[in-house]
Amino acid sequence: MARTTTTYRCSECGWTTNRWVGRCGQCQAWGSLAEVSSAPTRTTSLSKPTQSAQRITQIEARHARGISTGIGELDRVLGDGLVPGAVVLLGGEPGVGKSTLLLEAAARWASQGRRTLYVTAEESTAQVRLRADRTGALHDELFLAAESDLGVILGHVEELSPSLLVLDSVQTVQAQGTDGVAGGVTQVREVTNALVRTAKRRGMAVLIIGHVTKDGALAGPRTLEHLVDVVLAFEGERHGAFRMVRASKNRYGPADEVGCFEMTESGIREVPDPSGLFTSGRGPTPGTCVTVSLEGRRPLVAEVQALVVPTSLTQPRRVTHGLDVSRVTMTLAVLQRRARHKLHTRDVYASTVGGVRLSDPSADLALAIAVASAMRDEEPAGRTVAMGEVGLSGEVRRVPAVGRRLAEAARLGFERAIIPAGAADEAAPAGLTVVPVYSVEEALAAAFTPTRSNVVPIDGRELA
């Protein structure tokens, strides 16, 4: 006869072991292991399928086409709107605006004549109504319920038959009869499994809000991201207005797309053209350089700023904001070794404008020019953008979609673009001078050399 065995599971990452230990062997969390009784092993018998398998050519694809949510930037990230039966998980830092965004999406969905159910397990219905009054997210087809019991939530779904369910949040809902507390590994897995089964059976789209850990990862077991169809991250600083929705998994569309929003007093607003948010608008100044980053398929013009000051410390400071600190450190090392900039005796501060985070390697060249500009106390010549990945040997490597980046720079009125020489075959838009470079030294020489378009006319004459 099979015997029940006892195992211990980590409440943070789901790691299991046969004996209790004080520290998780996978995520290194202390005191996170809880006892879980495993049921005896059973064998699965064969059963007759209720529906025969079909030829792929006989299956209609119209049931998997997306429906617009009414928010263009959210539709852009999802691919083509919400697919009936899809389960979407949205995670983000506390206070970033997850509930505001999904309440707006629920109201837009209901305004199209579709019944919508918004379930909150963290607030009362009156609190949600106050937010809806402030943001204008009111509609008769939008229903509210404040419940934390999974069985009651599924009862609301059977009673109302909504086409969209919004749950805020999955970590605060508890399934009766399942071990663990709300937010634990077992509870989160059971709640998500039940919502996925209901969504597929009824053809109902589900939007779930998820908490994140202090490291920015989604709280709960890693299998949570595998169960859902779409995983979105809502990013932004609490003290800034800019917000960005980024897809990390999408079964119905691109997994590298982003949507841009701005948080205002009256709610959240779409930003279809966000490039102007990430530049200071003052023109070239010492320690600055503009680049064109590629977020998904969208080119974004962003400004990189640098400040270089002497230091009295044995180990100089390297402070970054909005940039990858490892790439900043590598770029400074290249400038020290290949361009002969003595940075080992100086503190370097590097930041972006507008709170945008640049993870695209194409920002390396703009960072190098900004640091060199701060060292020289000299601004780059004219309205110049720079894009390219910097290698350890000092070469400037090619980056993808250079043509799209150049078109965006020309649209915003830039006069010159410093790009990798390997991308010089890209067609330059009218009015934009392209300067191909092979190395960081060539890029720095080009950045501080005025071109004819930078010559200022005075009384009909040209002063170089």
TrEMBL record:
**Name of the protein this chain belongs to:** DNA repair protein RadA
Q: Name one GO molecular function term.
A: ATP binding
Q: Regarding domains, what does the record say? A: The middle region has homology to RecA with ATPase motifs including the RadA KNRFG motif, while the C-terminus is homologous to Lon protease.
Give the span(s) annotated as Lon-protease-like. Answer: 347-464
Entry superkingdom: Bacteria
One Pfam entry name: AAA_25
The Swiss-Prot or TrEMBL record describes its family as follows:
Belongs to the RecA family. RadA subfamily.
- Supply the InterPro entries for this chain: AAA+_ATPase, DNA_repair_RadA, P-loop_NTPase, RecA_ATP-bd, Ribosomal_Su5_D2-typ_SF, Ribsml_uS5_D2-typ_fold_subgr, Rubredoxin_2
Motif RadA KNRFG motif at which residues? 249-253
Give the matching Gene3D superfamilies: 3.30.230.10, P-loop containing nucleotide triphosphate hydrolases
CDD domains with a match to the protein in the record? RadA_SMS_N
- Please cite one Gene Ontology biological process associated with this protein: recombinational repair
Q: Which stretches make up the RecA family profile domain?
A: 63-212
Q: What does this protein do?
A: Plays a role in repairing double-strand DNA breaks, probably involving stabilizing or processing branched DNA or blocked replication forks. DNA-dependent ATPase involved in processing of recombination intermediates, plays a role in repairing DNA breaks. Stimulates the branch migration of RecA-mediated strand transfer reactions, allowing the 3' invading strand to extend heteroduplex DNA faster. Binds ssDNA in the presence of ADP but not other nucleotides, has ATPase activity that is stimulated by ssDNA and various branched DNA structures, but inhibited by SSB. Does not have RecA's homology-searching function.
Give the UniProt keywords, A-Z. ATP-binding, DNA damage, DNA repair, DNA-binding, Hydrolase, Metal-binding, Nucleotide-binding, Stress response, Zinc, Zinc-finger
Q: Which GO terms describe its cellular component?
A: cytosol
Q: Where does ATP bind?
A: G92, E93, P94, G95, V96, G97, K98, S99
Provide the taxonomic classification.
Answer: Bacteria, Bacillati, Actinomycetota, Actinomycetes, Propionibacteriales
